[in-house]
Structures are given as C-alpha cells and as structure tokens.
Amino acid sequence: MNTLFVSDIHLNSAQPDITEQFCAFLRGPARQAEKLYILGDLFEFWIGDDDPDATYAQIQTELKALTDSGVPCVVLHGNRDFLLGEKFCKRTGCQLLPDGSLIELYGQRVVLCHGDILCTDDHAYQRLRRIFRNPIIQGLLRLLPLKQRQRLAERMRQASRNHIKNSMNEIMDVNQQSVIEYMHKANVQCLVHGHTHRPAIHMHALSSTSGTRIVLGDWYEHGSVLSWSTQGYELLTLTRS
C-alpha cells in the first residue's frame, strides 16, 4: 500500500482533458492507495460550496466514490480554492486540514502545505494572501451573491495572470530561508508542497541535519503524483493521451 499526494490540478470546465485524467486517476491508482492527499488548488477557482459548475459537481461525485470505497482523502486549501467548506466535505467525504499540518508517514514526521506561504519574496502576493485567508473576509465573500462571486473570481484570475507575466521569475518560487525556518518551526526533516508548479526533490541544510523538500507539479499538461510507501517515495509524471 502507498500514500499518494497531488496538488495544483486546477480543474475547470474549459480543460476537459485535465478532468478526464484526474477522474481516471481517482478510479485507478487512488483506489489502490492507503490515503490520498490533495495539497491545494484542486479547482481552478472555487467561489463557494454553492457553485453549480457541472465539472465541479462531477469531481465531487468521483471523490465521494473514492472515499466510499474506503480510501480516505485529505484536502488542503490552495490560493485558488480557499473557500472550500463544510458542504464540500459532506458531498465528497473528504477531510479539510489547515496549511502546516503534521502527519506521521511510515515512521517519519512530514509537514504539508500548499506552498504559497513560502514564496515570501513576492510581497504583493503575500499581502493579498493575508487578506483572503482571513476568516472574516472569507465569511463576507460567502455572503455575496453567486454572480458577484463569479465576476470577482474572473477578475482575480486575470489579475493573477498579469502578476505572473509582469513579475520576475525568481519571486514566484519559494524563499530558501523561509523553507528552512518553516521546517525548523515544524520540527521536521521533510516538507511536501505544491503551488510553484516546479516538481522536484530538494535537499536543505538544517541546523543539525539535512532536510528534504518535495515539490509537486501541476496537471496542466500531464499529471504529477508523489507516491510514498514503506519502500520510499517517488515523484511520478502521469502521461496524458
């Protein structure tokens, strides 16, 4: 048995190939797993648990089939789906965990996060993150009419595209010192995250030992999965037909 990790699937109705591949993943490899972790940005943008999008409804049905089969699924909020809430959990059987959650994985302590909190060189983004991760702001957003939230989501998507286009490539990645401080604070030697869309395994020098940072990739062109078992871990790329 293995434990699987994915992130940044960015499911949306405009890219049915992503939906098709992820559904196949949920019906196939995920059914054989001990547990599935989704580390944020499952959806391109989640405007609330009342979103009527047909693709989102399909994914919730597929996740419910997975959890009903006996495979637990844990979800972290990303920067695109920070409004995932209780109704989503009831529909899917998934469990929501906060950023920075610690898990015990085959004898090793591991800290999980979406990854955007580590991109501290991007000061404009971090200011925006603090605003939208505020529970009061999120509560106010949920009170807005659906149409208004849909318009807001589209403006935020466009603003994100412009920010990425106009920003230096370096600030879009994690800050190395922030990574080390994050791992020290969690008292772990292993960190798993997504967000940057740069799948890789990095080694970091901690105060008295070395640490491992595993970065999950996005699903825009192909799938990215971390498979972890008692035999070790492997960062996999799933081809798309």
Named CATH topology: Purple Acid Phosphatase, chain A, domain 2
Low-pLDDT regions: none
Q: Treating each run of at least 4 consecutive H or I residues as one helix, how many helices? A: 7
Question: Based on the structure given, which CATH architecture is correct?
Answer: 4-Layer Sandwich
CATH superfamily: Metallo-dependent phosphatases
Q: Indicate the CATH class.
A: Alpha Beta
Structural class given helices, strands, pairing?
Answer: alpha/beta
The share of residues in helices is 25-40%
Radius of gyration: 17 Å
The protein's oligomeric status is: single chain
The major pleated sheet works out as: 6 strands, mixed
Structurally, how many domains make up the residues?
1
- Write down the secondary-structure element order: EHEHEHEEEHHHHEEEEE
Overall average pLDDT: 93
The neighbouring-strand order within the major sheet is 4-3-2-1-10-11
Write the layout of secondary structure elements.
Layout: E1 3-6, H1 16-27, E2 35-38, H2 54-68, E3 73-76, H3 86-92, E4 95-97, E5 101-105, E6 108-112, H4 123-132, H5 135-143, H6 146-166, H7 176-186, E7 190-193, E8 200-205, E9 210-215, E10 223-229, E11 232-238
Parallel strand pairs: 1-2, 2-3, 3-4, 6-7, 7-9
Antiparallel strand pairs: 1-10, 5-6, 8-9, 10-11
Helix pairs in contact: 1-2
Features:
globular; 23% strand; five-stranded mixed sheet; 241 residues; single chain; Purple Acid Phosphatase, chain A, domain 2
